[in-house]
Amino acid sequence: MIQAATTDHTAQLRFRPGRWIDGWDAEDAGQWESGGRAIAQRNLAWSVFAEFLGFVIWQLWSITVVMLPEAGFSLTSAQQFWLISVASLVGATLRFPYTFAVARFGGRNWTMISAALLLIPAIGLAIVVNFPDAPYAVLLVIAALGGLGGGNFASSMANITFFFPQREKGYALGLNAAGGNIGAAVAQFLVPIVVTLGAAATLRIELAGWIWVPLIVVAVWGAWRYMDNLSEAKSDTAGTAAALREPHLWIMALLYVGTFGSFIGFAGVFPKLIADVFPQFSTFHIGSAAVSLAFLGALVGSLARPYGGRLADRFGGAIVAVCAFAAMAAATVALILALPRGGFWAFLACFVALFCATGIGNGATYRMIPAIFAARGAATAGEEHSVGARRQGAAALGLISAIGAYGGFLVPQVLNLSQPSTGSYALAFWCFVGCYLALGLITAAVYLVPRDALDRRIV
């Protein structure tokens, strides 16, 4: 049971059963320094851990799918692409209701629920991979349930937003996002090692699901024991409705599909692309364990995201986003040129460069969102409207993160259409080049060319 603080600043905090906190005001410097910071940081730590596991489960099939043929499953390439992408489709869709779940159930309560739900796809995968004759529909349903992990990002970010003051919110949200994104890399690195370590003749693919079960249980326990619910955390339906009427929300959602959508989409298909184009390099054996280099893409993209935000803080989000889209297009062209020459290391280097550019663009575009809404408010109706604009900006972050996640479905499906129709993935990559160039031009036309108040706030 949490005891109420005795200082003047924190006496206004009231602690109720169920770890509910009344009177929370992160903007109150006295309350923040006299105990509020410790509470917020504790909640952030467990939120990052739960979201990390959400990304692990969300991307679990991306590395498991390439092992299924060796385990006796007979799947077409199109079926494999669907198993990889369906979790992104479900996860992106779940981000909409998950955004409002914190206000409905409480941040601590929803973290417990959303983390516990991860047990379903983890255990489901562990069971179904033991049955090579299982109907494909069953595989598809279990893979789709991995989307439960994709929804966690939205609720986790919404929850942490309430805990931190405006001056520290960017750092907290960036840490929360990066801690989650890196889960994709950890899953792609550890799963091949675990399922092959000590194996004599057969893969133990079921361990790809079982190894996360204890960690999920720890996350549920940690949320129950150490996290809190804030009674001040309320859904801002008016802010959401206003954000949906703002044209810049839809422009930024399109840009976010290009950056984060490319990151999560390529992270999902990278193991399969390596296995298809360079099967001899799909894994490297260290003793009895197998290591896949596919994890490098998600790792580099995750680590680059905070630097994109830092560059945007210094030089402006729009110019960094334009440069990122240009780099993404250039890396993709280099990738296309490397494909027919059959050089794996050139292929890997181009893809790592592409992931790096998506991470930087991801950080830059995410930083642009609140700046755009603040600038719109200040330019339209002065300080009073600016307060409303901040509410719209907060709502827009959740909506745009949900829309952007659909890129995790679109990227694999574009590749899926290219391979059987042309015999290679080159056409799909040329389509991506065109999209990146178009998105760069849109960013420049909307946020760089105009020299008005909106432009000056962002650049």
Shape: globular
Share of residues in helices:
over 70%
Summed over residues and divided by their number, the pLDDT gives a mean of: 84
What is the gyration radius calculated from CA atoms?
A: 22 Å
Order of helices and strands: EEHHHHHHHHHHEHHEEHHHHHH
Low-pLDDT windows of residues: 1-9, 382-387
The strands making up the biggest β-sheet line up spatially as: 1-2-3
How far the N terminus sits from the C terminus, by CA atoms, comes to 48 Å
Strand percentage: under 5%
**What is the β-strand count?**
5
Structural class estimated from helices and strands: mainly alpha
Largest sheet at a glance? 3 strands, mixed
DSSP helical segment count: 18
Provide a short characterization of the protein structure.
By secondary structure, the chain is mostly helical. About 75% of the residues lie in helices and about 5% in strands. The chain has helices spanning about 30-60, 60-65, 75-105, 105-115, 120-130, 135-145, 145-165, 165-195, 205-210, 215-225, 235-245, 245-275, 295-315, 315-340, 345-405, 405-420, 425-445, 455-459, and strands at about 15, 20, 230, 285, 290.
